[in-house]
Amino acid sequence: MTRIIMHGCNGKMGQVISGIVANDPETSIVAGIDISDHMDNPYPVYTRIEDLDVDGDVIIDFSIASAVPTVLNYAKSRKIPLVLCTTGLTEEQIATVNEASKEIAILLSANMSLGVNLLLNLVKKAAKTLTGANFDIEIVEKHHNQKIDAPSGTALAFADSINESLNHEYTYNYDRSTSRVKREGQEIGIHAVRGGTIVGDHAIIFAGQDEVVELHHSALSKDIFAVGAVNAAKFLSQKCQGMYDMQNVIENY
Ligand SMILES: NC(=O)C1=CN([C@@H]2O[C@H](COP(=O)(O)OP(=O)(O)OC[C@H]3O[C@@H](n4cnc5c(N)ncnc54)[C@H](OP(=O)(O)O)[C@@H]3O)[C@@H](O)[C@H]2O)C=CC1
Ligand SMILES: O=C(O)C1=N[C@H](C(=O)O)C[C@H](O)C1
């Protein structure tokens, strides 16, 4: 049995994970942490992680970037593996996460779904072949109107994955409205749409001379992220210090 501490338990993802765990005999949530305390949960909920007095095997975090330093410090001080799913972290925060992984196991992933993690590999092959023929790369992501960070962590992960396959020679362009110049060849345009209840939609567009190739992922429910996070928690609870990602988890799917 993997004992989970759920950080951000009363948020949208925290509640979906509570539902998945309730039907999974291999996991249980032993405690939740959330600043808003308006939900009925079948486990104790704390508003401050420092007040936690139960043991857990792993922490899952779906909260807000500004709360990440606190959960990271707690995980480090108690030597508890941390599945970090919150997006919108600053470069400085990511550096702190990397530093902490010298002491504890951390799995950092902007998207816990199988489909996106498969696509993160497929875009590399497409980028290598198509940029060789001068195709331009644009990423368009769409999310619900409650999302606060933009562009999405997943859009950035796609850009980073593509750029890695292109020797990091591309720059990212988030805004064409302030310049009056033609598109640079070695850039990746990244664009965010926000509206309604869109769960999460990512299109990676390769546009060339007279043809367009588009790779696309659509999340139809938040369950795909929750199932991935619970699988990641089971995986990580057995690991020693180090940085992990969802590629390590989907290898076992
Ligand atoms: N990696 C992945 O696959 C996915 C990542 N995400 C990311 O996960 C994060 C959460 O998403 P979602 O559940 O939709 O967001 P929500 O806003 O619904 O949930 C976040 C929860 O964290 C709470 N919270 C805010 N500050 C703190 C704090 N200091 N300590 C503890 N809890 C706090 C919020 O309370 P309050 O509402 O009062 O602010 C809220 O209940 C986002 O960054 C999102 O981008 C989302 C889906 C998939
Ligand atoms: O906030 C969300 O909802 C999501 N956020 C993640 C991101 O920023 O990429 C993943 C998913 O698309 C849903």
UniProtKB/TrEMBL annotation:
<dbReference type="GO" id="GO:0016726">
    <property type="term" value="F:oxidoreductase activity, acting on CH or CH2 groups, NAD or NADP as acceptor"/>
</dbReference>
<keyword id="KW-0028">Amino-acid biosynthesis</keyword>
<keyword id="KW-0521">NADP</keyword>
<keyword id="KW-0520">NAD</keyword>
<feature type="domain" description="Dihydrodipicolinate reductase C-terminal">
    <location>
        <begin position="115"/>
        <end position="250"/>
    </location>
</feature>
<feature type="active site" description="Proton donor/acceptor">
    <location>
        <position position="143"/>
    </location>
</feature>
<dbReference type="InterPro" id="IPR036291">
    <property type="entry name" value="NAD(P)-bd_dom_sf"/>
</dbReference>
<dbReference type="Pfam" id="PF05173">
    <property type="entry name" value="DapB_C"/>
</dbReference>
<keyword id="KW-0220">Diaminopimelate biosynthesis</keyword>
<feature type="binding site">
    <location>
        <begin position="8"/>
        <end position="13"/>
    </location>
    <ligand>
        <name>NAD(+)</name>
    </ligand>
</feature>
<dbReference type="GO" id="GO:0008839">
    <property type="term" value="F:4-hydroxy-tetrahydrodipicolinate reductase"/>
</dbReference>
<feature type="binding site">
    <location>
        <position position="144"/>
    </location>
    <ligand>
        <name>(S)-2,3,4,5-tetrahydrodipicolinate</name>
    </ligand>
</feature>
<dbReference type="GO" id="GO:0050661">
    <property type="term" value="F:NADP binding"/>
</dbReference>
<feature type="binding site">
    <location>
        <begin position="109"/>
        <end position="112"/>
    </location>
    <ligand>
        <name>NAD(+)</name>
    </ligand>
</feature>
<dbReference type="GO" id="GO:0009089">
    <property type="term" value="P:lysine biosynthetic process via diaminopimelate"/>
</dbReference>
<dbReference type="InterPro" id="IPR022663">
    <property type="entry name" value="DapB_C"/>
</dbReference>
<keyword id="KW-0560">Oxidoreductase</keyword>
<comment type="pathway">
    <text>Amino-acid biosynthesis; L-lysine biosynthesis via DAP pathway; (S)-tetrahydrodipicolinate from L-aspartate: step 4/4.</text>
</comment>
<feature type="binding site">
    <location>
        <begin position="153"/>
        <end position="154"/>
    </location>
    <ligand>
        <name>(S)-2,3,4,5-tetrahydrodipicolinate</name>
    </ligand>
</feature>
<feature type="active site" description="Proton donor">
    <location>
        <position position="147"/>
    </location>
</feature>
<dbReference type="Pfam" id="PF01113">
    <property type="entry name" value="DapB_N"/>
</dbReference>
<comment type="function">
    <text>Catalyzes the conversion of 4-hydroxy-tetrahydrodipicolinate (HTPA) to tetrahydrodipicolinate.</text>
</comment>
<keyword id="KW-0963">Cytoplasm</keyword>
<dbReference type="InterPro" id="IPR000846">
    <property type="entry name" value="DapB_N"/>
</dbReference>
<dbReference type="GO" id="GO:0019877">
    <property type="term" value="P:diaminopimelate biosynthetic process"/>
</dbReference>
<comment type="subunit">
    <text>Homotetramer.</text>
</comment>
<dbReference type="GO" id="GO:0051287">
    <property type="term" value="F:NAD binding"/>
</dbReference>
<dbReference type="InterPro" id="IPR022664">
    <property type="entry name" value="DapB_N_CS"/>
</dbReference>
<feature type="binding site">
    <location>
        <position position="34"/>
    </location>
    <ligand>
        <name>NAD(+)</name>
    </ligand>
</feature>
<dbReference type="GO" id="GO:0005829">
    <property type="term" value="C:cytosol"/>
</dbReference>
<feature type="domain" description="Dihydrodipicolinate reductase N-terminal">
    <location>
        <begin position="3"/>
        <end position="112"/>
    </location>
</feature>
<keyword id="KW-0457">Lysine biosynthesis</keyword>
<comment type="similarity">
    <text>Belongs to the DapB family.</text>
</comment>
<dbReference type="InterPro" id="IPR023940">
    <property type="entry name" value="DHDPR_bac"/>
</dbReference>
<feature type="binding site">
    <location>
        <begin position="85"/>
        <end position="87"/>
    </location>
    <ligand>
        <name>NAD(+)</name>
    </ligand>
</feature>
<protein>
    <recommendedName>
        <fullName>4-hydroxy-tetrahydrodipicolinate reductase</fullName>
        <ecNumber>1.17.1.8</ecNumber>
    </recommendedName>
</protein>
